[in-house]
Specification:
- The protein is of the alpha+beta class.
- The protein has a single domain, classed as Sandwich (Jelly Rolls), CATH 2.60.120.
- It is 16% helix and 44% strand.
- It contains 3 helices and 10 strands.
- The strands form 2 sheets. Strands 1, 3, 4, 8 and 10 form a 5-stranded antiparallel sheet that branches.
- The longest helix has 12 residues, at 3-14.
Length: 166
């Protein structure tokens, strides 16, 4: 088992955030791996240099979502390709139900999703403390293209677990 697999297993089995979300249900709860995704921009409506864009992901009403890691990919030629070194864009994630942002300010995407460079090990980068997002709320994703080129589209995926009563 490599380090990434060990950390994922540890999060799933021992994480206090998952336990707290399960306890909040007040009944026997089921914890399942889950992900939410969205696309910002496209080949026909690219994210221009200097442009801000956003998307909203509705969280299902039947379960808490425990965000553990984020992945970004860019559309280059019509098919998504994994971005080992994400394009020149900043990323901010906001839990609108709690009114809380994931980072103090929009941050270069590579620092949030991991990268192949020696100074940013791991793809994806696991959050040190996963974020618990309440049911029936929204997660707002904001990006800013600070690079010199247009982005043909960015896919953002939020992965973790959903916790719901059974």
């Amino acid at each position: 088992m490599n380090e990434y697999e060990r950390r994922v297993l540890d999060l799933a089995q021992n994480n206090m955030n998952l336990r707290e979300a399960a306890a909040a249900e007040g009944r026997l709860s089921l914890i399942e791996y889950f992900g939410y995704s969205t696309q910002i921009g496209s080949r026909t409506a690219p994210v221009l240099s200097g442009e801000d864009r956003q998307a909203v992901i509705p969280i299902q009403a039947d379960s808490y979502f425990v965000l553990s890691y984020i992945i970004a990919s860019e559309v280059y030629t019509g098919a998504p390709e994994f971005v080992e070194k994400p394009a020149d864009f900043t990323l901010q994630i906001t839990d609108t139900g709690a009114g809380k942002t994931l980072y103090s300010s929009p941050t270069v995407a590579e620092l949030l999703v991991g990268g192949a460079n020696a100074y940013i090990q791991g793809i994806p980068l696991l959050l040190a403390v996963p974020r618990v997002i309440r049911p029936n709320t929204n997660v707002k994703i904001d990006i800013n293209n600070f690079g010199p080129n247009s982005l043909a589209g960015i896919f953002i995926s939020l992965f973790g677990a959903k916790v719901y009563a059974i």
